[in-house]
Design goal:
221 residues; alpha+beta; eight-stranded mixed barrel; 8 strands; 29% strand; elongated
Length: 221
C-alpha cells in the first residue's frame, strides 16, 4: 500500500513540475513581446530626444543681413533681454508649443525659437522675426498654409496671427525680411527641410496680426 502511495506522490510531483515548467514557458512567451515593445518604446523616446537636441553646428537659420534694417532710428528700448524666455508660440494645426527666447544665437535656438533682437516686440507694430531650426522647433513648418492660425503669448498678452504666405530665398540674400508699418510675424528656418548638412536656402513664413486677447491662467500642469 505504501509502495503505491509513494508512486502516486512521485507522479503528482512530476505533474506539478511539468505544470510549472509549462506555465513558466507560457509566461516567457507572453513576456518576450512585451519586453520587445518596451525596448522599442524606449528607443523611440531616445530617438525623439536626440532629434530635439541634435542640431548641426554649422546651421544658421537667420544669417546676418537677412533682415532689412529700419530706416527710422528706434528710440524705444526693447522690453526683452538676451537669453530671456519671453513667451510661447503655438501652432494649432501642428499641436506644438515652443518657447520663445530673446536672441537668435545657438544657445537660444537650442532651447526654442529665437526672437531677432532688431525686430519688433511680439504683437507690436512692425515685423516680429522668429528663427528656429527646421529639424527641431520648426519641424513641420512647411505644412502650414494660408489662413492657418498661429498663437503667440508674451507678457503683453496673447496674439493671434493668420498665415499670409511663404517664400524660399537664397541663404546669402540680404534684406529678404522687410520692415512693416503693421504688426506682422515672420518665421524663418533653413531649407530644404530634408537637406543633409548646411541647407543653402531659407524658408520664410509670414503672418499678420488678427487680434489680441488677454492672457488667461494656464491650465497646463
Amino acid at each position: 500500500m505504501s509502495k503505491f502511495s509513494g508512486l502516486s506522490i512521485a507522479v503528482k510531483l512530476i505533474l506539478i513540475l511539468s505544470l510549472c515548467l509549462l506555465l513558466y514557458s507560457v509566461f516567457q512567451i507572453l513576456k518576450a513581446p512585451a519586453e520587445a515593445r518596451h525596448a522599442l518604446q524606449n528607443w523611440e523616446k531616445k530617438r525623439e530626444e536626440a532629434s530635439r537636441l541634435t542640431v548641426p553646428e554649422e546651421e544658421t537659420p537667420l544669417p546676418a543681413g537677412m533682415v532689412t534694417p529700419s530706416k527710422e532710428k528706434n528710440t524705444l528700448k526693447s522690453a526683452y533681454t538676451e537669453g530671456e524666455i519671453i513667451g510661447e508660440i503655438y501652432f494649432p494645426k501642428l499641436d506644438r508649443r515652443i518657447a520663445i527666447l530673446e536672441g537668435t544665437e545657438r544657445p537660444q535656438l537650442k532651447k526654442g525659437a529665437g526672437h531677432y533682437e532688431g525686430s519688433a516686440d511680439i504683437g507690436a507694430k512692425g515685423n516680429s522675426v522668429l528663427a528656429g531650426h527646421r529639424d527641431t522647433v520648426f519641424r513641420g513648418l512647411g505644412d502650414l498654409v494660408k489662413d492657418d492660425l498661429i498663437e503667440v503669448e508674451s507678457a503683453e498678452g496673447k496674439f493671434i496671427y493668420t498665415v499670409t504666405g511663404s517664400a524660399i530665398v537664397d541663404g546669402d540674400a540680404r534684406g529678404a525680411i522687410r520692415q512693416s508699418t503693421e504688426p506682422v510675424l515672420t518665421l524663418i528656418t533653413c531649407y530644404p527641410f530634408t537637406f543633409i548638412g548646411s541647407a543653402p536656402d531659407r524658408y520664410l513664413l509670414t503672418a499678420s496680426l488678427l487680434r489680441r486677447e488677454p492672457l488667461s491662467p494656464s491650465l497646463r500642469p
